Amino acid sequence: MHEDAINPVTLLIHLERPHAEYSGIATLEQVTLAGLTSSSSYWVDLALKWLERGALSSDAIARQLQATAETLHRSHQSLRHRCASLARKQRQVAN
Questions:
Q1: Would the pLDDT of 2 be above 70?
Q2: What is the average per-residue pLDDT within 78-85?
Q3: How far is CA 52 from CA 7, 8, 10, 49, 58, in A?
Q4: What confidence tier does 6 reach under pLDDT thresholds 50, 70, 90?
Q5: With a threshold of 0.85, does the pTM exceed it?
Q6: Residues spanned by the domain of 43
Q7: Residue 17 to residues 10, 33, 39, 53, 79, Cα–Cα distance (Å)
């Protein structure tokens, strides 16, 4: 592993606090993507809350939201719908 690489797992804990309070070395996008790519619905939910509260907007986030919506287990229907809705909004902002 490269010295400068950031382990996404270490970023997840930051999602438990409001994004406005974040001041770590990783970007807001990196922290949010770590949550969206987590296998835990808990971290996905917290990443979605950051986005719903206006944390940021980017093409990478929109792509990951769509991917997460498509790959979350069916039992997480609410999370899938939130991901798909936010992906649409992110793409609209980008255009």
A1: no
A2: 93
A3: 24, 21, 22, 5, 14
A4: confident
A5: yes
A6: 8-94
A7: 14, 16, 20, 12, 19
Could you give the number of structural domains in the chain? 1
Q: Is residue 1 part of a domain?
A: no
50 close to 17: Cβ distance less than 8 angstroms:
no
With both helix axes pointing from N to C terminus, report the angle between 77-94 and 59-71 in degrees, rounded to the nearest 10.
Answer: 160
The pLDDT mean for the chain works out to: 89
**Which of 1-15, 41-55, 78-92 shows the lowest mean pLDDT across its residues?**
1-15
Q: Is residue 70 part of a domain?
A: yes
Q: For the residues 21-40, what does the mean pLDDT come to?
A: 93
Q: How many angstroms separate the CA atoms of 33 and 16, rounded?
A: 14
- 28: closest CA among 11, 41, 16, 45? 11
Residue 3 counted as domain residue: no
Q: What is the DSSP letter of 21?
A: G
